[in-house]
Amino acid sequence: KASGGLYAPTIRHHDGRYWVINTNIDGGGNFVVSAERPEGPWSDPVWIDLTGIDPDLAWEEDGTCWCAFSGPEGGINMARIDPVKGEVLEKPFATWSGSGLKYPEAPHLYHIGDWWYLLVAEGGTERGHSVSVARSRSPRGPWEGAPANPLLSHSGTARSIQNTGHADLV
Questions:
Q1: CATH, range 6-146
Q2: Quick check: helix, strand or coil at residue 47?
């Protein structure tokens, strides 16, 4: 059986707080915890009613919080949420289905300058796992994939580390 525990946590810093969003497969779905300092103390989990895995958080300058996640029907989905109350403020919608490889997942959303960037893992968790990126002027899209996608891949068998995936920016 595949892991029924925690999937792909993401940590973000916004407005003086650290935020971790995660999926607990067997324990209730997606949740957020937050703290003023990375060493804690951390809040109790705030559950968010979104069906999917590998969620991420990003904020607009006005405080609007977006949650990007791997949707239940494939592809990347997005929803506006209130991470403090755990409320989904808008029905989730499909955003980008990746560059054409299988299983786009683990989205990370960034607002840099005038652009939004969506970094995703593709290709499954075995050989062929890659990272692709798209950009848009709005988190609602439309998204345009980078011409050189996938940007990163480690599908060779000659090295001791293989099948890596899920990228993020620091």
A1: 2.115.10.20
A2: strand
